[in-house]
Amino acid sequence: MRGLAGKKVVVTGGTSGIGEATTRRFRDEGCEVVVLARRPGEGVIQCDVGDRSQVEAAFERIGDLDVLIANAGTSYRHDAIDITEEHWREVLATNLDGAFWCAQAAARRMLAGRGGSVLFTASTNALVGYRHYADYNASKAGLVALTRSLALEWAPKVRVNAVCPGYVLTPMQEAEYTQEMLDQVNARIPMGRHATPEELAGLFAYLASDEAAYFTGS
């Protein structure tokens, strides 16, 4: 992608699924990639993004950056009537609070420097009703509203966009769905299958690149 080589990129939740594939893609594009994740690993700063103090400490270590991909997320498959306060707080803290704390920390540096791009991993669940994931859906809908608001506040120096995947075959998806459930979903998808994490990584690469220099608030 034009203009990506040499950029400094931060990916949250970059050790699994979409985040891991996105980390690989940006490194292939010649970027320096720093991963924020709860689990340790090469090039990883351990950080619970739902904890603002941990986020601030992580970004102090990172310094200036060009691209943030706020991807860290969690979900539980449960009926809305059974959602506990613990699960509600965990899902919102990771998916919405964490995305904002990271975006805020990144934008402070981008606005004071050479600008940049902030990308959120939202979901089609943010756009339509969906059973068994009320807390997750609410968090992702919040990201869509946040995208539009931050794009207005931080333009023209920082572009803010959200990717809204449908079904993606990630470890988190495989942990929550049986093979029979996956087959039923695939039967309803025009392409006949889930997306791969690598296909989402390609979209993130495009949106962060100079090819998408006029994209913001989308």
Secondary structure elements and pairings:
Blueprint: E1 8-12, H1 17-28, E2 32-37, E3 44-46, H2 52-62, E4 67-70, H3 85-112, E5 116-121, H4 134-154, E6 158-163, H5 171-176, H6 179-188, H7 197-208
Parallel strand pairs: 1-2, 1-4, 2-3, 4-5, 5-6
Helix pairs in contact: 1-7, 2-3, 3-4
Biggest sheet strand line-up = 3-2-1-4-5-6
Instruction: Spell out the helices and strands N to C.
Output: EHEEHEHEHEHHH
- The number of distinct helices, counting runs of at least 4 residues, comes to 7
Question: How much helix is in the residues?
Answer: 40-55%
Radius of gyration over all CA atoms, rounded: 17 Å
Strand fraction equals: 5-15%
**Unreliable residue runs:** none
Overall structural class, as computed from helix and strand content, comes to: alpha/beta
Task: Please characterize this protein's 3D structure.
The chain is α/β, with parallel strands linked by helices. It contains seven helices and six strands. The chain has helices at 17-28, 52-62, 85-112, 134-154, 171-176, 179-188, 197-208; strands at 8-12, 32-37, 44-46, 67-70, 116-121, 158-163. Strands 3-2-1-4-5-6 form a six-stranded parallel β-sheet, sandwiched between helices. β5 (116-121), α4 and β6 form a beta-alpha-beta unit. α1 packs across α7 (197-208) and α2 runs parallel beside α3. It is globular. The model has no long low-confidence stretch (mean pLDDT 96).
